[in-house]
From TrEMBL:
Its main location: cytoplasm. It comes from Echinicola vietnamensis (strain DSM 17526 / LMG 23754 / KMM 6221). Gene3D superfamilies: Acetylglutamate kinase-like. It is found in: Cytoplasm. GO terms for molecular function: ATP binding; glutamate 5-kinase activity. One of its GO terms (biological process) is L-proline biosynthetic process. It is an enzyme of class 2 (transferase). InterPro entries: AceGlu_kinase-like_sf (IPR036393), Asp/Glu/Uridylate_kinase (IPR001048), Glu/AcGlu_kinase (IPR001057), Glu_5kinase (IPR011529), Glu_5kinase/COase_Synthase (IPR005715). Signal peptide: none annotated. ATP binds at residue 14. This is Glutamate 5-kinase. Belongs to the glutamate 5-kinase family. The gene is proB. One of its GO terms (cellular component) is cytosol. Its EC number is 2.7.2.11.
Length: 263
């Protein structure tokens, strides 16, 4: 069992689209309530959560349906995320408000992390929010991201933010219980408790994610980004976001999901 000698003060939590949506691709308010309830508990314990959330495209599809007259896939994503992002934020804003906690939105493209003025600007923004007691909620700015300035997915955004802020912990919450040693839904496979950064993890990846789903990442990208952050001495975990109290249990050192560790 992990034994944290002191509790982390800054935790980046990344939430994937598949965890937030049901099989009809509708955002599940109960999942958001459970998530924000735990973030609020951390906040009250003087641990600042920084939330990286996917789900804008899903929230846009929920409102528009899939029947857009526009056929270009890139433009369709722009339209869905443009409509969906404020809907997603409304959910978060209202739930955080129930706990008396303020939250603010940070949308970024990869250019915002390039060294120099952009990066400084990003750091100032996060530090300003954190110093003001406002929980940052980040997503990729899908409406303006061009492929050359796009993150591979929000797993990359989460790792970059964790590094940028020198976070103590990075937690990827997804809809699987962690990294499995084979196809996650097969009877004989189980969750790996630990993965080391120099371990050959390709062998564990069963597929590249379901192309029909609305997210963009997959377990391969999560592992790559998890290893990158772990190599910078950030404690990294991958776990199922719908497991009761998963965040609080991880922070309190309980073995849950997969921990990605430096060697
Ligand atoms: N070894 C593995 N362990 C866990 N999940 C895996 C593995 N190999 C492939 N996957 C797939 O990776 C997907 C998780 O990534 P994804 O759906 O993109 O999550 P998110 O929306 O949280 O970013 C799951 O659908 C799962 O089927
Ligand atoms: N930025 C997109 C999500 C992109 C993404 O990385 O999705 P996911 O693989 O579900 O974390 C959105 O808000 O819909």
């Amino acid at each position: 069992m992990e034994n944290l000698s002191k509790k982390p003060r800054k935790i980046v939590v990344k939430v994937g689209s598949n965890m937030l949506t049901n099989h009809k691709n509708r955002i599940m308010d109960t999942v958001l309530q459970h998530l924000v309830g735990q973030l609020a508990e951390l906040y009250e314990d003087n641990i600042m959560p920084i939330l990286i959330t996917s789900g804008s495209v899903a929230a846009g599809m929920e409102a528009m349906g899939r029947e857009l007259s526009i056929k270009d896939d890139a433009v369709r994503r722009q339209i869905y995320s443009s409509m969906g992002q404020p809907r997603l934020m409304r959910h978060y804003y209202e739930i955080f408000q129930q706990y008396g906690i303020r939250c603010g939105q940070v949308l970024a493209t990869k250019r915002d992390f390039s060294p120099g003025k952009h990066r400084e600007n990003m750091i100032n923004c996060y530090n300003g929010l954190i110093a003001s007691g406002i929980v940052p909620i980040a997503n990729e700015d899908d409406t303006v991201s061009l492929s050359m300035s796009a993150f591979s997915d929000n797993d990359e955004l989460a790792a970059l933010v964790a590094e940028l802020l020198e976070a103590d912990m990075l937690i990827f919450l997804t809809h699987k219980d962690g990294v499995f040693n084979g196809p996650p839904d097969a009877a004989h496979t189980e969750v790996l408790e630990e993965v080391k950064i120099d371990e050959k993890t390709e062998q564990y990846i069963h597929d590249k994610g379901d192309p029909k789903t609305i997210g963009r990442g997959n377990m391969a990208s999560k592992l790559k980004m998890a290893k990158k952050a772990a190599s910078k001495n950030i404690a990294v975990h991958i776990a199922n976001g719908t497991t009761p109290n998963v965040l609080l249990d991880i922070v309190n050192g309980k073995q849950i999901g997969t921990r990605v560790m430096a060697n």
